[in-house]
Amino acid sequence: KSRLLSLPQHVVLYPLVSKSLRNIAAGKDPLEGQRHCCSITQMHEHYSLGYPDLDELQKNPQPLIFDIEVLKVEPPGSYQQDPWAMTDEEKLQAVPQIHKEGNELYRQGKVPEAAAKYYDAIACLKNLQMKEQPGSPDWIELDQKITPLLLNYCQCKLQCEEYYEVLDHCSSILNKYEDNVKAYFKRGKAHAAVWNVAEAQADFAKVLALDPSLRPVVSKELRSLEVRLREKDAEDKIRFKGIFSQ
User: Fold this and answer.
1) Cα atoms in the Cβ-side hemisphere of radius 13 Å centred on 244
2) Is residue 149 within 8 Å of residue 125, measured between CB atoms?
3) Does the N terminus or the C terminus of the chain have fewer Cβ atoms within 10 A?
4) pLDDT tens digits for range 24-45
5) Where is the signal peptide, in residue numbers (predicted)?
6) Which one, of 232, 183, 228, lies nearest residue 204 by Cα?
7) Full-prediction pTM beyond 0.85?
8) Is 9 helix (H, G, I), strand (E, B) or coil?
């Protein structure tokens, strides 16, 4: 455990830094509420940081003492930075490894954990893509790396029964890539799960048009949907019969 004394002139921006660290600890975006401008402007715009102690420190800077405690020592190469803390080069280099870790977690049945890995990989690439001109060769190259990760993420969300998120992501893919069979198939499954019957049938029909070899898989999904519809109709008849007999 070590102690570090900081002078007032060196910590004038500490309240903003501390807010970001607290956001990270709470699982939020560390730059939440900030925009691109100089640091002094940031301070004036943030009349309240949401924490009374930081607001007071921002108004009256004073010497600070930081206690730093080592929690653990990790072997070289074992520590993985969060995406927000990486340089552009580090983000690009980290994506294949994060993707691999997501695949391994998925194979182990750890679906939510796999989804988190895919999300981190997507976040790395999205951050890089934001710096490119939309539609430029570099932007398209990054987008083509994002798409399979996003499809893997959607597969996890299907299993977690978060169907509307799957609908949103698959639709965004199909708005750009109209021949993406996997996006149609996953969106079809999500539509079926939330009783969008016509939309599900249309997506499965598109899958068959693009890849007829998938007929057995699509037929299985359509049969499952038909069974669920019959069960739902039977349940509705019983429910409504009870209502009208009262």
Assistant:
1) 6
2) yes
3) C
4) 777 665 555 554 444 444 445 4
5) none
6) 183
7) no
8) helix
